[in-house]
Design brief:
Blueprint (H helix, E strand, L loop, with lengths): L2 H7 L5 H9 L6 E5 L2 E5 L2 H17 L3 H13 L7
Antiparallel strand pairs: 1-2
Helix pairs in contact: 3-4
Length: about 80
């Protein structure tokens, strides 16, 4: 999944925010090279973590570090989902 896909599937998320989360290590993207260009690729699990963390930011004002920790924990234990 490309950064564009992640942004399109997470309403309100900007490219700058996604780049920041990658830079800070909150999300790990897989890098690959095509010709001279380098590309980032995200997994479906990354998408779910980002969407859940972003939900915590928007709804509860949770700080990014805590939001990503909660989102990862929630994915490990699906019975904790608040949908």
């Amino acid at each position: 999944m490309t950064p564009k896909d992640i942004i399109e599937k997470t309403p309100g998320l900007t490219r700058e925010q996604l780049s920041y989360y990658v830079k800070m290590g909150r999300v790990v993207s897989r890098k690959h090279t095509r010709g001279k260009n380098k590309y980032s690729e995200f997994s479906h699990k990354n998408l779910l973590v980002i969407q859940n963390a972003f939900y915590y930011f928007q709804e509860f004002g949770t700080k990014p570090k805590t939001a990503f920790e909660k989102a990862r924990e929630e994915l490990k234990q699906p019975e904790l989902r608040f949908e």
